[in-house]
Amino acid sequence: MRVALAQLNPTVGDIDGNAALVSEWYGRAWDAGADLVAFPELVLSGYPPEDLLLRGHFIEECEAALHRVAAGCTGPLAVIGVPVRVEVGRGRAATEPPVANAAAVVLDGRVVTVYKKIHLPNYAVFDEERYFTPGDWVPLVEWGSERLSVNVCEDIWNPGGPTEAAALAGGARLVVSISMSPYHMGKGGEREQMLRRRATDAGVFVVYVNGVGGQDELVFDGHSVVAGPDGSLLARGAQFDEQLILVDLDLSEADAFEGRAVSPDGYSLRTVRIEGAGTARRPGPARQRARPGAAALAPTPGDMVLESPTTGRSLLSREAEVYAALTLGVRDYTRKNGFQRVVIGLSGGIDSALTACVAVDALGAAAVMGVTMPSRYSTSDTRSDAHNLAGNLGIELLELPIESIFVPYLETLAPVFADRAVDVAEENLQARIRGNLLMALSNKFGWLVLTTGNKSEMAVGYATLYGDMAGGFAVIKDVPKTLVYDLARYRNSLDPNLAPIPESTIERPPSAELRPDQTDQDSLPPYDLLDRVVDAYVVRDESVATMVAAGLDRAEVERVVHLIDRNEYKRRQAPPGVRITLKAFGKDRRLPITNRYQG
Amino acid sequence: MRVALAQLNPTVGDIDGNAALVSEWYGRAWDAGADLVAFPELVLSGYPPEDLLLRGHFIEECEAALHRVAAGCTGPLAVIGVPVRVEVGRGRAATEPPVANAAAVVLDGRVVTVYKKIHLPNYAVFDEERYFTPGDWVPLVEWGSERLSVNVCEDIWNPGGPTEAAALAGGARLVVSISMSPYHMGKGGEREQMLRRRATDAGVFVVYVNGVGGQDELVFDGHSVVAGPDGSLLARGAQFDEQLILVDLDLSEADAFEGRAVSPDGYSLRTVRIEGAGTARRPGPARQRARPGAAALAPTPGDMVLESPTTGRSLLSREAEVYAALTLGVRDYTRKNGFQRVVIGLSGGIDSALTACVAVDALGAAAVMGVTMPSRYSTSDTRSDAHNLAGNLGIELLELPIESIFVPYLETLAPVFADRAVDVAEENLQARIRGNLLMALSNKFGWLVLTTGNKSEMAVGYATLYGDMAGGFAVIKDVPKTLVYDLARYRNSLDPNLAPIPESTIERPPSAELRPDQTDQDSLPPYDLLDRVVDAYVVRDESVATMVAAGLDRAEVERVVHLIDRNEYKRRQAPPGVRITLKAFGKDRRLPITNRYQG
Question: 3-class DSSP state for residue B258?
Fold first, then answer.
């Protein structure tokens, strides 16, 4: 049996566009001789559609799109993710949401069965119990002499879950799992290990298709997987790129493997027998039946590959992985929201330099505008670094000095400020003048402002609300400062002859340059310590006591935790950015602003 | 039996402070001769604690506080809301959250039973399935010859739920329901009707205590209720104010009423027999046992009332209710976050005028600073209205003209803007200069900036990000413009001799005054139409087709819906504000920014 995994990039809310993508990739899989093609979770609505799912007409349009697409599916069997309505009494209590997260099985132009996701994630970035009612049965699709099952994303993460039930209790030899699994650092590798273990535990072939793309703060990393019943890795899709992956499987091999290690929970099984023309579509000659009017059966190079154990690509390094996630996140946020160009304030520092590199790699140099906005406190070093960076990247650079604007602000406020000492108010004014200039360019020319703050700064509030935080997308907001350095060096290493980021930018002690001789370390602990506390407190919810017991200095920990807590109000008004850690400042961290708890 | 309802105002995260409040109010209830005192849902943690509930040490501290408080509860029986840990296997699956939303029953210094909320709301502003594992049994507390039950908030909204189960299947004569029920317009009245119906259906006394206060975007409106088994209203707590409510009940009356209309679902019942001194605490002499060292039994006037059917207060009018909600929301956000003073930009328009009235009523005139920031487009009419408003309210007013700052911005940008036409970029610059000036005052003096945009503007993006949207709390962000007018007239009607809002402010066509002779209606449909579409599309998730079928003009509807959709990015960066409708722009409306769906 030739199996195709359609690792494509849908867009939330673009039902017609997504349906067209599914039809197009279905045709390509057919042309390539596939017997079965799997599409990602909720591919027709895009993922996550969030509160669009509360609109009855949205669900109806998704269902209508499914049936339109299905009518053209007269070749391979297809598994397509789609939200569907669920009536009260038919698997749903009156107090449950009227929608299910479904995998439709399509053959011979018809929807032959609709599986409803059983395990609904409702933690971290997920709110699926807000939207969906869970299914309560696992399908066993009898297709000719083959027996297979389908499930959706979270279902397959559960040991003893629907995968084992279908294989061990139901005798399925192939389980198709469709997914939109949000990226964080290292998740692809962990997921791959999980899938191989699940295949082994169930003694079954696992075909796991994951979508790809950026959606607001989430990035989906592709990296689809086919695992054999012995735990072997039979295919690994590209990370962070669209791809049609083709694999030839001999399902009779699954008979040699008994599942082990796990007993399935008591899932209800439902047998679905498929009749009709599609049932003849078996390995061998059937696969050669070309789509009417199709040009050729050969896979297209690049985004369509026939995988085998010997052609498997290797996993990206940590830095390459994160850099690719950032690039994809920026590209999709920009393009899916209809922007042609982005604008970035270049300070000469490492954060804006890295942001500019990502933007250029995502969109091309012509689509990136740099702006340097020197103040009375800017040094000639940082100014020349900004110019060198722009030159190295080949992007246009505007210079808009802020002094002539800063002065009348001070004059206007002088009678009110009177004899108060100069403090953060004057520092923030400068940052906000820069924010206003960037937003004026955005308003005049329709450019998207990319902000440049990193996670360490966002954590402790070392950023100016409406100043350097002003913009539409915060590229590195989930990247801790220590990782910013690693990524800068990684990007420079890709092009040793023309490393884009000046070495002086990397070497200079970081500074906001908002007062004379300022450095970040005047206000903050060293970044390696800060990043350890951010990881422990923000990502892992550790208490102060636990951090101190792990050897961190109590006074420093308490200082950082206090700063993190009191800056929740700033983060609430920050633009979205790419999530790359297990817990970003975004929808996966929901803390009250009004909050007296410490630690 | 004398029952006390402790309608108090806890603070999220302030475990020690909340515990002290509970102990203090317990003492007052004891002094007033209560046999039983009920505290709101999660009173020890504050509500909603959001992701604080993911920290194991936070839950442990709440439990420790419960046991400290309980040790002092040697008088009346107490029902206290608290998050508690739940072990795997003891009512919890491994994949469920390790915490329950509990009502602890306390007597004789000990926790005698802990009920775990069964019905967890996970819609609108609620995320309780993210945090809690549901309970699976309903308690029947046998206390001397009395039989009562307890449940938590959402539990009692379910017909046939734990209330009916306890009364109809278990024979309880009193059900104590503890709650933190977020306000929206008219909800208090609806909730009261529901509680009377529930009491009737179950043939039981219902004692429903709701907390009060503001927590970020939520306001809790108090309005606790005691309903008799015949559906009579026996007590109604103050709306939007703290109060200790005392009611004398003869539980034997419940025997005369058989529940009707509803059969309880199959809840598991668990009998809890209370032994010890507290069991003697019955109506009559026992109630007279004073707390050791207590001064008197008489209720204090004002915040402590002994209710009877004849002393029930009437419900607030719609305008009075919303105005009270806004006032409480502003007061609590300001005080609980430690601000002494707020600052508001006064344009001479109705939105900032209403915002200033609310702030003064919430905090007092001395705590409110007004700032008028005239531009080249400001008229003498609006300038004098701003001064008159400040004078009427008795607040200080600063005047900071923006022209001298606007000019160098234009000069700096002139080489880039070149021959482009003047447009929204120049308009927004002015709004952002004002935002910067307010934030500079905030940074220098520690004042909280209150923003003044209404819901109609927030919907269609008729506001400047980082401009008039800049600030910490958006007082009227959920108030549609048509209701802004009603509230302004309501506030003026309270003080006919010195109506604070100038009549000219109410009568003048609204304008942003960012270009010559501008009015809102140049860019927007009439506000009555706009508000109808906002209500249909935002609050009720109606489709364009439904709105058109209801008689609205298709072109206008499509225009407004398009504006609402494309301004999601702005709202994502808006400050929180008081929720007064069934669906605000806040945590109860979660839409993607990247979203191609229309309608």
Answer: coil
Greater model confidence, B264 or A313: B264
A429 and B436: CB-CB below 8 Å? Answer: yes
Give me the phi and psi of B537, to 5 degrees please.
-85, -45
B-chain residue closest to A442, CA distance: B425
Residues in B touching A466 (Cβ below 8 Å): 432, 435-436, 439, 466, 470
Give catalytic status of residue A117 as yes or no: yes
* Cβ contact B460:B560 at 8 Å: yes
Q: Determine which of A456-470, B61-75, B155-169, B272-286 has the lowest per-residue pLDDT on average.
A: B272-286
ipTM of this complex: 0.94
Q: Annotated catalytic sites of B, by residue?
A: 41, 117, 153
Best residue in A9, A468, A572, A597 for a mutation probing chain B (most B CBs within 10 Å): A597
| C-alpha to C-alpha distance for B13 and B65, rounded to whole angstroms | 12
User: What are the tokens at A64?
Assistant: 């209508």
* pLDDT given at position A257: 84
Q: Is B157 left (phi over 0), alpha (psi -120 to 50) or beta?
A: alpha
* Residues of chain B neighbouring A55 (CB-CB closer than 8 A): 541, 543
Does A401 contact B412 at a Cβ distance shorter than 8 Å? Answer: yes
Helix (H) or strand (E) segment spanning residue B566: helix B554-566
φ, ψ of residue B366 in degrees (nearest 5): -70, -20
Cβ of A598: how many Cβ atoms within 10 Å?
Answer: 12
The predicted-structure confidence for B447-482, as pLDDT tens digits, reads as follows 999 999 999 999 999 999 999 999 999 999 999 999
- The stretch B5-29 carries a mean pLDDT of 98
> pLDDT, tens digit, for every residue of A424-469?
999 999 999 999 999 999 999 999 999 999 999 999 999 999 999 9
Average pLDDT, chain B: 93
CA distance B367 to B359: 8
> Closest Cα of chain A to B104: distance in Å?
22
Asked if B90 contacts B114 with a C-beta cutoff of 8 angstroms, the reply is no
How does pLDDT run across B354-378, given as a tens digit for each residue? 999 999 999 999 999 999 999 999 8
Q: Name the β-bridge partners of B36.
A: B3, B77
- The two tokens of residue A464 are 């100016």
Place of tokens 């307010």: B438
Q: Which of A14, A51, A123 sits opposite B589 (nearest CB)?
A: A51
Identify all chain A residues contacting B409, using CB atoms and an 8 Å cutoff. Answer: 405, 436-437, 440
A270 to chain B, closest Cα gap in Å: 25
Structure tokens belonging to residue B457: 């503007």
Residue A594 to residue B337, Cβ atoms within 8 A:
yes
Indicate the range of A89-98, B70-79, B290-299 predicted with least confidence: B290-299
For chain A, which domains are there? 2-87+96-286+297-310 (3.60.110.10), 320-520+567-572 (3.40.50.620)
Split at pLDDT 50, 70, 90, the class of A310 is very low
| Candidates B424, B472, B597; nearest CB to A569 | B472
Q: What is the pLDDT of residue B285?
A: 39
pTM of the model: 0.95
Q: Which residue of A has its CA nearest to B121?
A: A130
- Residues of chain A contacting B15 with CB distance shorter than 8 Å: 597
Contacts of B586 (CB under 8 A, 6+ apart): B125, B217, B478, B576, B577, B579
Instruction: Look at A432 and B413 and tell me if their CB atoms are within 8 Å.
Output: no
Hey, what are B242's tokens?
A: 């703290």
Sheet containing strand B233-236, edge to edge, reads: B233-236, B225-227, B205-210, B174-179, B146-152, B137-143, B268-274
The DSSP string of A379-423 is -HHHHHHHHHHHHHHT-EEEE---HHHHHHHHHHHHHHHTTPPP-
Cα angle B33, B34, B39; round to 5: 145
